[in-house]
Amino acid sequence: MCIEQILKTLKNLLPETSDDEFLEQLALQSSYIIFDSADEILFKPGDAPKGFYWVLSGQVVEKVSKDVSVLLGKGSMIGLEEFLKHQQHVSTWSTCCRTETLFIDSRCFQNMDKNSVINKKMKEELVNHLLRLKEACQPNPRVLINSV
Amino acid sequence: MTASKESILPPANCQMCKHRSESAFHNLSPDELDKISHLKTCISFRKGQVIMSEGSRPQGVYCLHTGKVKVYKVGTEGKEQITRFATKGDLIGYRSILSDEPVSASISALEDTHACYIPKSSFFEVIADNPKFSLNILKRSCHELGEAGKMIASLAQKTVRERLAEILLVLRATFGEDSEGFIDIKLTREEIANMVGTATESAIRLLSELKEEGLIVTQGRRIKIADRSALRHIALVFE
To answer: Taking the model in full, what pTM does it have?
Structure first.
């Protein structure tokens, strides 16, 4: 995908930001990666937190345990917590379908962090991931009703 | 389309590629090249654009057609260490694909670069169907391992002046010379310092010393090696 197409995708993802120069820098400093099919690995346990994936399209799943998985889609930032905390990954992230991403490393992140729209977006994504994780860990309500 | 633009962009068919003899695909048959031509897409990168980021898992390899790229690692304090360069005919990203590990270094374009992208699945198909290609990849990997070993020894055992002399020779060997005899790559003093593993001020001082001794000629960012054998002597390089 060429720079212009990446820019167009970023503008759709961030309609609130009108800073074209910032978006162009973002497109130049990140690396565009397409995962062509399902079950392609983004992170494995033990991977160093060198960056995170920003999902432009598609869906990814985090295999937290045998019974708990978290699904995230367009706009989510995969691996952001580990990146911010400088901690190794402990779970596996893989694709559910064809997925387009931008990989953001520390250098690109330093520029992103200065933008208030992106900053807000990152906080929203962290909260979103936490909520999804919490939902995934809830016991099945049907099981609860049956046991009563 | 002008003639010059035609030569910059990769051809649709790999059989027409003028850099094929320098690439890992150099001894594939016309049918095998035809098959790869259908599997690849041509991609352009702007000067300064990141092609691959350290820690990511790229899903294909790039065969460079025109342009120059640097391979580097960024330290915890944001300092860049350039480990090597790649240019026309070089294949980048294949080690990560083969080892199923994240990329160990970042790659970015030093100038506008055009490449052919071969997706992972297609790359494995080519490997499975072509023992000659597999052997080429193995040879390249072994060569790069050897060069990495030399670099480690160089960083550990040589003085900064010796390392700088060696780097200038490596740059000349990698990029050749332009029509005026200057090394055909323009690097900032910071980038040269990053390759040598020293501060930018030290690199600037040492380059001035080499210039005063008549071993190199500089013109802005351009560097010409005036006395190769003397530079080899300083670098303790005998090949």
So the answer is: 0.85
